[in-house]
Amino acid sequence: MAVAQPNKRILSIQSHVVSGYVGNKAATFPMQIHGYEVDTINSVQLCNHTGYNVFQGQVLNANELRVLSDGLKANDINYYSHLLTGYVGSKSFLKEVIQVVKELRETNPNIIFVCDPVMGDHGKFYVPEELMSIYRDELLPLANMITPNQFEAELLSGQKITDEKSALDAMQRLHEKGVQTVVLSSIPSETNGMLVSYGTTVIDGKKTGCKVEYPALDCQFTGTGDLFSALLLVWSHKHPSNLQLALEKTLSGMQAVLQRTLTDAQELAGAGNKPSPAQRELRMVQSKADLEDPKVCMKGVPLQF
User: Fold this and answer.
1) What residues make up the domain containing 132?
2) How many angstroms separate the CA atoms of 77 and 65, rounded?
3) Does 293 qualify as catalytic in the annotation?
4) Torsions phi, psi for 20 (to 5 deg)
5) Is 1 a domain residue?
6) Strand spans (E) along the chain
């Protein structure tokens, strides 16, 4: 009798920090509490994120990624229901990630690949610029879902985003590269003090979509994109035919984490003082209940095409 393969086993390839919450540290816990087995490969390992005065550690190279991948394969433990990728800092490593994606899909043709094309933000790269064309031309066509921010969506689509129409045009260009589901994590809303996330998906040639507005909090958080992608993977798997609900639950859970983080950080910093990077670390463990079962306070609106 054939052995049933797990449908909640994730391989997550992104950065790692010893202290704090970015990359795999931000993504693993939220997925585990929803019952997913999460295996991690750390593209870099740092003492803390790069917003601190000092950050140092190690960088995994392409050969080391190959050794880990080959070891999983040799032991016949390379069957995954999902693959999640985030920060990658070099061309050679990203090229090797592409090979890993192809091999995992050979093992499980139905694997769901969620790609966060981490390249930069606010008009600024924080990876080598040569990675952009690799993401655009080689990795995106392999992905089931992508979660770029505004800067990354503009780079990958070649479309400047200035309003809702241009955002949707950019997303359509990304669909045309073969991606089934495109979610823009955050762009400024036309409503003051708000951000908006757009999601569109194409199934059997029919496109549906939604948008969800949420408050822009007056604080600089780190790791929010990694948390966003992890939660969206979970909720879109639980609600495969309802992207709007998945996005509502993702953003509602995130708002709970960020509100708690901001309240605690301001209390620690004291009145009139700006919270330090350590004080602004995401309150992930304290928000376990909100991540598991968020009160849906961010309501979406369907898009008409």
Assistant:
1) 9-302
2) 16
3) no
4) 100, -170
5) no
6) 9-17, 37-46, 57-59, 82-85, 112-115, 120-121, 124-125, 145-146, 181-188, 194-203, 206-215, 300-302
In a domain, 246, yes or no: yes
Q: What is the Cα–Cα distance from 26 to 16, expressed in whole angstroms?
A: 9
User: What proportion of the chain, given as a percentage, has pLDDT over 70?
Assistant: 99
Average confidence (pLDDT) over 163-190: 95
- Distance of alpha carbon 293 from its chain centroid, rounded? 19
Determine which one of 76, 121, 218, 226 is catalytic: 226
pLDDT of residue 1: 39
Nearest to 95 by CA among 134, 152, 58: 134
Report the SS3 class of residue 290: helix
90 falls within a domain = yes
Tell which residue, 12, 14, 10, 185, has the closest CA to residue 86: 14
Instruction: Characterize the bridge pairing of strands 124-125 and 206-215.
Output: unpaired
The pLDDT of residue 3 is: 54
Contact 182, 167 (CB under 8 A): no
Name beta bridge partners: 11. Answer: 39, 83
